[in-house]
Design brief:
The complex is a heterodimer of chains A (about 100) and B (about 625). Chain A is mostly helical. Chain A has a domain of about 40 residues: Methanol Dehydrogenase, Chain B (Irregular), CATH 4.10.160. Chain A contains two helices and no strands. The chains are: A mainly alpha (about 100), B mainly beta (about 625). At the A-B interface, helix 2 of A face strand 10 and strand 24 of B.
């Protein structure tokens, strides 16, 4: 029974400690102007390598940028052709 | 004359011609917006006040308001926004597939033209919150290029239509649904530019704002919410009046690694513009993912009120309301411009913005100075107060969120105490009339990988009425309030059964109109909030009312069609209370009050309208 009580006390202490620590972040302690985030106590400053590492795939992260660039290039072809011909052609394969 | 001098004169003349032309377009829009007969942009005019000086319908006679005519859009999903009226023609937009109709107000039963785009149906699968669209933009033409109606499509296209014929004039790709980018916003015209934002932060879309030349469809500038300063588009003097808001290098420096590339900050709300400062204003949205533990840092410049130069897109100021958001308080809501004396009696150009985070902010729109920041309701609890000197919210850590923790009783919910509704400002009474959500939540984050084109949220939500609502029956989810931004006082406030999602219209007739999710159009006394008139519409409302005059008669129009985020459970028949990003649970009672169906209803005193003359619209066989 004593062991159980000690265990319960330990869990309670850890739980309370973590809870107290985690509620300390109020967003007002700034490292620099406009840069005021700080990790909540018990949580990492950087998630890379931690249990919260999202392990982003560089290939996935690149897809939006590639798509935006491709769209901008196609739109430019369309607008350039429109300025020459006065007719909007959406299908860039049909633009001479 | 030397060649150099000739060149210089030519360049000067070209610049003058460009300036003169764009000024003419702007002047024409301004002039059109002053007429009671027109409603040329979703917020009535560049100040986005949603206010009409027309007082033919007023507090004394509003009881005589009756249906004059109606129009079915033929679509069932949520209808946000409001139609436009220009020179006797009404332009009506719809939910996906984003059809557009032009109606002759002399005989609105006859559709002048209709544009029905064929879109990739896959766009539906990446829409965050029903299949809504918020409206249209109008450009008046210049003698060479025709007047245009400019629209967004859910599949990411921005399209310009000939306003007379409905034919496509140009069509550009502004987003790619394969990487989660969609468009739901009403575009915005300034001079000869069509401005448009982006949607898809729930899929990790990096937000951007783009200007296209209305005459050619050519991209003029593009800026992002996150990333390197050049791509965010910061002017040399960015935030020079408020350096404590942050200046350079923070679009990458407040993110870990390359997380800014999938960091959200899309903007799909409403814009406002001041021709005197040449600055336009809007808010960037939430960082991605919602799970805050996955993205250490302040995550700039998501959640930011911007003041950007219309010609270049460069930002003069940016104020981040919710640094390192933990609750999806996307900052895209309406920006309403006013000129008022501050507490010291100094006349100032102001911008007022009721934010999702439960704070209504008022800034000096010339330099970004924070004038006031008050709670939309005293039940807001994630923040104790906003420090007007630092601009920082002083959070109550008890209502923060983090991994391995279920946050409870957080107010507001992710829907915010205010969402996309387009509110109004009455300059005579110096009152803002705001439609409010009264919803709180529990929030539990989870880890997930980023895959382009897939949902990237990382939190489970349970939503329910706020403390003033009825938690037994899931009612009392909304409010309507009259607010003075200088004193911070609420002149009146009323509870509603559901969120007042669509926004309000104010008129000089001492009236505030708004629609409700359970399908009523209501009119209240602007001074007192007293309910003066209401009408039951065929379906719930998530758009805002507008008014126009035709042949001496004032009309009030509103689109109906329940849906949007609050209606997502109803329209997709969802039962899990955490589905629809938590909306299904909060609005589980909505289906007992309304059902789907999209259209428009138009009202006038005694129902006076185009068909009073029985010959109007008759077949002459």
């Amino acid at each position: 029974m004593k062991k159980v009580i000690v265990a319960i006390a330990a869990v309670a202490a850890i739980g309370f400690g973590a809870s107290t620590a985690a509620v300390a972040y109020d967003g007002t302690k700034c490292k620099a102007e406009g840069n005021c985030w700080e990790p909540k106590p018990g949580y990492p400053d950087k998630v890379a390598g931690s249990k919260y590492d999202p392990k982003h795939s560089p290939a996935e992260l690149k897809k939006q940028g590639d798509s935006m660039k491709a769209m901008e290039e196609r739109n430019k072809k369309r607008a350039d052709a429109f300025k020459k011909s006065g007719k909007w052609t959406y299908d860039v394969k049909k633009i001479q | 004359m030397t060649k150099r001098l000739q060149m210089a004169l030519f360049a000067t003349a070209s610049c003058f011609a460009l300036t003169a032309t764009t000024a003419i377009a702007n002047d024409k829009l301004n002039e059109l917006s002053k007429s009671n007969e027109n409603w040329i942009m979703p917020g009535k005019n560049y100040s986005s006040q949603n206010y009409s000086p027309n007082n033919k319908i007023n507090a004394e006679n509003v009881k005589g308001l009756k249906a004059a005519w109606s129009f079915s859009t033929g679509l069932l999903h949520g209808h946000e926004g409001t139609p436009l009226v220009v020179d006797g023609v009404m332009y009506v937009h719809t939910s996906f597939p984003n059809n557009t109709f032009a109606l002759d107000l002399n005989d609105p039963g006859h559709i002048l033209w209709q544009h029905k785009p064929k879109q990739d149906p896959a766009a539906r699968a990446v829409a965050c919150c029903d299949l809504v669209n918020r409206g249209l933009a109008y450009w008046p033409g210049d003698g060479k290029a025709p007047a245009l109606i400019i629209k967004t499509q859910l599949d990411g296209h921005l399209v310009a239509l000939n306003a007379k014929t409905g034919e496509e004039y140009w069509k550009v790709e502004n987003g790619d649904i394969k990487v989660g980018q969609t468009l739901t916003q009403a575009p915005y015209v300034i001079k000869d530019l069509a401005l448009v934002g982006s949607s898809g932060a729930e899929l990790g879309v990096r937000g951007h704002t783009t200007a296209y030349n209305v005459k050619t469809g050519e991209q003029v500038w593009r800026v992002y919410a996150t990333g390197p300063d050049e791509e965010v588009g910061l002017a040399d003097d960015f935030n020079s009046a408020n350096k404590h808001y942050g200046t350079k290098g923070l679009g990458t420096g407040t993110w870990e690694g390359d997380a800014w590339k999938i960091g959200g900050g899309t903007n799909w709300g409403w814009y406002a513009y001041d021709p005197d400062t040449n600055l336009f204003h809007y808010g960037s949205g939430n960082p991605a993912p919602w799970n805050e533990t996955m993205r250490p840092g302040d995550n700039k410049w998501t959640m930011t009120i911007w003041g950007r130069d219309a010609d270049t897109g460069k930002a003069k100021f940016g104020y981040q309301k919710t640094p390192h958001d933990e609750w999806d308080y996307a900052g895209v809501n309406v920006m309403m411009l006013s000129e008022q004396k501050d507490k010291d009696g100094k006349m100032r150009k102001l911008l007022t913005h009721p934010d999702r985070n439960g704070i209504v902010y008022t800034l000096d729109r010339e330099n970004g100075d924070l004038i006031s920041a008050n709670k939309l309701d005293d039940t807001v609890n994630w923040v104790k107060q906003v420090d007007l000197k630092t601009g920082l919210p002083n959070r109550d850590p008890e209502f923060g969120t983090r991994m391995d923790h279920k946050g409870k009783e957080i107010c507001p919910s992710a829907m915010g105490y205010h969402n996309q509704g387009h509110d109004s400002y009455d300059p005579e009474r110096q009152l803002f009339f705001m439609g409010i959500n009264h919803i709180c939540m529990d929030w539990e984050p989870f880890m997930l990988p980023y895959r382009a084109g897939q949902f990237f949220v990382g939190a489970t939500l349970w939503m329910y009425p706020g403390p003033k609502g009825d938690r037994q029956n899931y009612l009392g989810l909304g409010q309507i309030k009259a607010y003075n931004a200088i004193t911070g006082d609420y002149k009146w406030e009323k509870m509603e059964r559901f969120s007042v999602w669509g926004g309000t219209l104010a008129t000089a007739g001492n009236l505030v109109f708004y629609g409700t999710l359970d399908g009523f159009l209501k009119a209240r006394n602007s001074d007192t909030g007293e309910l003066l008139w209401k009408f039951k519409l065929p379906s719930g409302v998530i758009g805002h009312p507008m008014t126009y005059e035709k042949d001496g008669t004032q009309y009030v129009a509103i689109m109906y069609g329940v849906g949007g985020w609050p209606g997502v459970g109803l329209v997709f028949d969802l039962q899990d209370p955490t589905a629809g990003l938590g909306a299904v649970g909060a609005f589980k009672n909505l289906a007992n009050y309304t059902q789907m169906g999209g259209g428009l209803m138009v009202f006038s005193l005694d129902g006076k309208g185009p068909y009073d003359n029985l010959e109007t619209g008759e077949y002459k066989g």
